[in-house]
């Protein structure tokens, strides 16, 4: 049932670091996070790792396992051979704080920049009436657990630090799509999507959808429809004319 | 000493549902407010809540109203709940749910387009507002986005290690950044504790690492009192296999949506465990139970939907009697009762969880489940209307507060509790701050002492390993103060806790202060130990069985104890002192609710 596995874990901080090799016990049914915890408890008490729920619901334990962005709590050891070396490294898109912990503040900054949800008024009886089919489109994106693996894998920012200022990443493009499809929201964010959050940088390679642990179709159901609506808006001659007539030049 | 200092009107400790709701309320009433939380924003334990938010909105059943919800809550808590909290909770929950929609929440809908409500244990009507089986995520994300939209300051990955108090009550809090290990002090006349529960003191638990009882312990040390600490809820259905996922929650919605419990002989055993207290409202035959899902007027509830304490004890008994599954649980079967499409639609995250972690397809086969430590009913004793603790300026809301749920909490009543009392605590904390203008002074000696205590584990060499001490504490609570209790075992637990206290005094950690989990655990352990001692002492004292406290040596409920609360406080020598306190008297017009024939 149990066996000794070889783990290579990146250890270090912003100044640098390297992969360290450990031999560690693995038991039946365990996931990578269990093994990282065993390392902490028995060999390296100060090994830094983020985690919370250990059930794939909170999105804290994101890392790259054998180079692939994954949740450590949802990666079963049985997916590897017993003689296979398992390499665990921090998410590459974000600056390292220590060991497997990265500085994900980029994501919180982008979240704060998105114009807030603004609902239409309630109906006379104090309720909001919406049909299930209408809420389901946005519900798909609200399943997001903010693990930021889509951000990690997105090649627009993965090795292009300079794009972070102008590109919000797939997680926040689907947040914009979610708000755009939200039955109650009344704010139009299509211009911001294009001009401030960098929707045009995405060339729909669908890497984000591939790594999403929640199975959200970021590209097909979120980003592509949002791109289409932005295009409709921009190239519709009536809309264009209307925007020219109504818009006033800043003094 | 190097120290970062900040000044606010209200500091909220914890960023789960209660903490964020409190912060929003305090901010909106004009208080300079900050939230301090141990994890990243949006990762709090609330995210793991699955089933829904209980609120008598009457969208599914027009017969539902706050009086029925109040009655269900009090009966579920075996009448030990603070009546005023249960009343406020039932009355205000519908408005708290509705306002989430104004902040962007998208609940599942009824055919009329209203918020859909689902069945849960102990609730007479379908009343849980929900989003599939990920309602907690919706709640946390909605409150998180509202908090961000309002521009409230959030100190993420920052742990409070001490409350600071002066002659007139709270003056602030002291803590450290997890990332850098550097110290922070907040000066504030009001502090709201919203730190959640204590489950990490147990070996098998649905709770995350954050649930180390910080708020319970901080309050006690600051001079506040804890109530009902003997009542710990073991959720009947946690995963039991494989070992590494043992304890992870399997939502009660599985049973609310038609799932049944069976033993290894294939018997639907819950019919053998219907207590007299609930007999009149529980189905007697499988046929009646099955009809209830579609016709609640003419049929009674299936016994699988008895309150959690009853179901957990029943599962425990079946396994002990040798009728358990190969891995020591019982079967939870929805596969044979609902279509695969229905199951995937209603329970998507359960489907995913079993598929990924246990290689079980819940649309085709039964799950193996067993009890897991889930929730502590006990907590900081508060004023029901303001959530004020006995220390001026200190407030508590959510799981860290006590009284609302009595001896056992009904499923769905936790998320509504967070919203109702989080808001009330935030309002009262802002109000209190207005009465204390000017920054509260933080004496240098107090700050230096807090810093010294936090750094002590680095000073020692060759001391105890914090992970080993935590493991031994979890084993002790699991073995000796678990779901079924006896006096000799709890006396033994108290001896072991005393020995563990010696070891905690001798902890040492390796490495340095930057993001060091070993050090963080070393600072959480004293809280875990103090709370465990409160649980064990109160559980030993209460010589009866009720709700989340089952004594093998006192198996019946007792009238004397039905009128008595146990209060933990900090004695002058630092030990836990226990006292008895009469239950508050329910006014006559509320007592009448229990005479009404249920509709």
UniProtKB/TrEMBL annotation, chain A:
Cellular component annotations (GO), alphabetically ordered: plasma membrane
Keyword Endoplasmic reticulum carried by entry: no
Pathway connected to this protein: Carbohydrate metabolism; tricarboxylic acid cycle
Keyword 4Fe-4S belongs to the record: yes
Gene Ontology terms, MF aspect: 2 iron, 2 sulfur cluster binding; 4 iron, 4 sulfur cluster binding; electron transfer activity; metal ion binding; oxidoreductase activity
2Fe-2S ferredoxin-type domain location: 5-92
InterPro entries reported in the protein's UniProt record: 2Fe-2S_ferredoxin-like_sf (IPR036010), 2Fe-2S_ferredoxin-type (IPR001041), 2Fe2S_fd_BS (IPR006058), 4Fe4S_Fe-S-bd (IPR017896), Beta-grasp_dom_sf (IPR012675), Helical_ferredxn (IPR009051), SDH/FRD_Iron-Sulfur (IPR050573), Succ_DH/fum_Rdtase_Fe-S (IPR004489)
Cofactor(s) listed in the protein's UniProt record: [4Fe-4S] cluster; [3Fe-4S] cluster; [2Fe-2S] cluster
The entry's keywords: 2Fe-2S, 4Fe-4S, Iron, Iron-sulfur, Metal-binding, Oxidoreductase
Gene3D superfamilies in alphabetical order: 3.10.20.30, Alpha-helical ferredoxin
GO BP term, example: tricarboxylic acid cycle
PROSITE patterns: 2FE2S_FER_1, 2FE2S_FER_2
Family stated for the protein in its record: Belongs to the succinate dehydrogenase/fumarate reductase iron-sulfur protein family.
NCBIfam families per the UniProt record, alphabetical: dhsB, PRK12386.1
Protein name: Succinate dehydrogenase subunit B
Species this chain originates from: Trujillonella endophytica
Source lineage: Bacteria, Bacillati, Actinomycetota, Actinomycetes, Geodermatophilales
From TrEMBL, chain B:
MF GO annotations: steroid dehydrogenase activity, acting on the CH-CH group of donors
All copies of domain Fumarate reductase/succinate dehydrogenase flavoprotein-like C-terminal, residue ranges: 471-586
Residue ranges annotated for the FAD-dependent oxidoreductase 2 FAD-binding domain, each copy included: 9-415
Statement: the UniProt record of this protein carries the keyword Flavoprotein: yes
InterPro entries registered for this protein in UniProt: FAD-dep_OxRdtase_2_FAD-bd, FAD/NAD-bd_sf, Fum_R/Succ_DH_flav-like_C_sf, Fum_Rdtase/Succ_DH_flav-like_C, SdhA/FrdA/AprA, Succ_DH/fumarate_Rdtase_cat_sf
Cofactor(s) required for function per UniProt: FAD
Keywords: FAD, Flavoprotein, Oxidoreductase
Active site: 308
Region Disordered: start-end pairs: 288-307
SUPFAM superfamilies: FAD/NAD(P)-binding domain (SSF51905), Succinate dehydrogenase/fumarate reductase flavoprotein C-terminal domain (SSF46977), Succinate dehydrogenase/fumarate reductase flavoprotein, catalytic domain (SSF56425)
Domain of life of the source: Bacteria
Record bears the keyword tRNA processing: no
UniProt cross-references to PANTHER family, sorted A to Z: SUCCINATE DEHYDROGENASE 2 FLAVOPROTEIN SUBUNIT (PTHR11632), SUCCINATE DEHYDROGENASE [UBIQUINONE] FLAVOPROTEIN SUBUNIT, MITOCHONDRIAL (PTHR11632:SF51)
Name of the featured protein: Succinate dehydrogenase subunit A
Species the sequence originates in: Trujillonella endophytica
């Amino acid at each position: 049932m149990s066996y000794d596995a070889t783990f290579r874990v990146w250890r270090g901080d912003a100044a640098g670091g390297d992969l360290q090799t450990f031999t560690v016990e693995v038991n039946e049914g365990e996931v990578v996070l269990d093994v990282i915890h065993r390392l902490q408890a028995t060999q390296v008490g100060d090994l830094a790792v983020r985690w919370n729920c250990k059930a794939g619901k909170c999105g804290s334990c994101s890392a790259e396992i054998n180079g692939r962005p994954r949740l450590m709590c949802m990666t079963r050891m049985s997916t590897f051979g017993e003689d296979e070396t398992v390499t665990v490294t921090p998410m590459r898109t974000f600056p390292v704080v220590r060991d497997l912990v990265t500085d994900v503040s980029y994501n919180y900054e982008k979240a704060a920049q998105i114009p807030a949800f603004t609902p239409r008024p309630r109906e006379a009886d104090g309720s909001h009436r919406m049909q299930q089919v209408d809420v389901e489109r946005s519900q798909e994106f609200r399943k997001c657990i903010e693990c930021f693996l889509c951000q990690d894998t997105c090649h627009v920012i993965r090795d292009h630090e300079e794009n972070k200022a102008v590109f919000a990443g797939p997680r926040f493009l689907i947040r914009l799509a979610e708000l755009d499809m939200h039955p109650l929201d009344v704010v139009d964010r299509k211009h911001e999507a294009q001009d401030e959050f960098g929707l045009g940088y995405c060339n729909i390679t669908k890497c984000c959808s591939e790594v999403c642990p929640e199975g959200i179709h970021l590209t097909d159901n979120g980003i592509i429809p949002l791109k289409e609506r932005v295009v409709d808006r921009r190239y519709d001659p009536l809309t264009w004319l209307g925007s020219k007539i109504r818009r006033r030049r800043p003094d | 000493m190097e120290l970062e200092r900040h000044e606010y009107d209200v500091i909220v400790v914890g960023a789960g549902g209660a903490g964020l709701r409190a912060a929003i309320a305090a901010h909106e009433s004009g208080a300079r407010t900050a939230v301090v939380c141990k994890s990243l924003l949006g990762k709090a334990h609330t995210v793991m809540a699955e089933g829904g938010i209980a609120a008598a909105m009457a969208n599914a059943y027009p017969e539902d109203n706050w009086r029925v919800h109040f009655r269900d809550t009090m009966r579920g808590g075996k009448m030990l709940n603070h009546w005023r909290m249960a009343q406020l909770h039932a009355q205000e929950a519908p408005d708290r749910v509705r306002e989430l929609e104004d902040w962007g929440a998208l609940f599942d809908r009824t055919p009329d387009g209203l918020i859909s409500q689902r069945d849960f244990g102990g609730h007479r009507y379908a009343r849980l507002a929900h989003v599939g089986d990920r309602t907690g995520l919706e709640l946390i994300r909605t409150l998180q986005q509202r908090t961000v939209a309002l521009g409230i300051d959030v100190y993420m990955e920052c742990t409070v290690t001490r409350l600071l108090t002066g002659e007139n009550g709270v003056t602030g809090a002291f803590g450290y950044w997890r990332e850098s290990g550097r110290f922070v002090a907040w000066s504030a006349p009001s502090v709201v504790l919203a730190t959640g529960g204590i489950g990490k003191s147990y070996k098998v638990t649905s709770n995350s690492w954050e649930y180390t009882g910080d708020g319970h312990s901080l309050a006690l040390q600051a001079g506040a009192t804890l109530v009902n600490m003997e009542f710990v809820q073991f959720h009947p259905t946690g995963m039991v296999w494989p070992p590494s996922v043992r304890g992870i929650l399997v939502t009660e919605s599985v049973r609310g949506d038609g799932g049944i419990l069976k033993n290894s002989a294939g018997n639907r055993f819950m019919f053998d465990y219907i207590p007299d207290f609930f007999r009149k409202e529980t189905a007697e035959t499988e046929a009646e139970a099955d009809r209830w899902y579609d016709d609640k007027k003419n049929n009674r509830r299936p016994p699988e939907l008895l309150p959690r304490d009853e179901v957990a004890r029943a599962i425990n008994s079946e396994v002990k009697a040798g009728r358990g599954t190969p891995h020591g649980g019982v079967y939870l079967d929805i596969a044979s009762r609902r279509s695969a499409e229905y199951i995937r639609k209603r329970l998507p995250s359960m489907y995913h969880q079993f598929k990924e972690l246990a290689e079980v397809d819940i649309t085709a086969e039964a799950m193996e489940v067993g009890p897991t430590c889930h929730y502590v009913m006990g907590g900081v004793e508060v004023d029901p209307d303001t959530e004020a603790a006995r220390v001026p300026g200190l407030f508590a809301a959510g799981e860290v507060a006590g009284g609302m749920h009595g001896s056992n909490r009904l499923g769905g009543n936790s998320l509504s509790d967070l919203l109702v009392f989080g808001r009330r605590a935030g309002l009262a904390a802002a109000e209190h701050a207005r009465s204390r203008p000017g920054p509260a002074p933080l004496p240098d000696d107090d700050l230096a002492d807090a810093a010294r205590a936090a750094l002590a584990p680095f000073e020692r060499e060759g001391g105890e390993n914090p992970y080993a001490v935590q493991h031994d504490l979890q084993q002790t609570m699991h073995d000796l103060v678990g779901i079924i209790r006896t006096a000799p075992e709890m006396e033994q637990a108290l001896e072991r806790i005393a020995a563990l206290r010696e070891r905690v005094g001798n902890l040492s950690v390796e490495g340095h202060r930057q993001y060091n989990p070993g050090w963080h655990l070393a600072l959480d352990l004293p809280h875990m130990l103090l709370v465990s001692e409160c649980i064990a002492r109160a559980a030993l004292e209460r010589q009866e069985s009720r709700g989340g406290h089952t004594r093998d040596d006192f198996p019946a409920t007792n009238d004397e104890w039905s009128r008595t609360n146990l209060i933990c406080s900090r004695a002058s020598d630092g030990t836990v002192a226990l006292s008895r306190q009469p239950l508050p008297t329910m006014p006559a017009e509320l007592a009448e609710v229990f005479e009404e024939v249920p509709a």
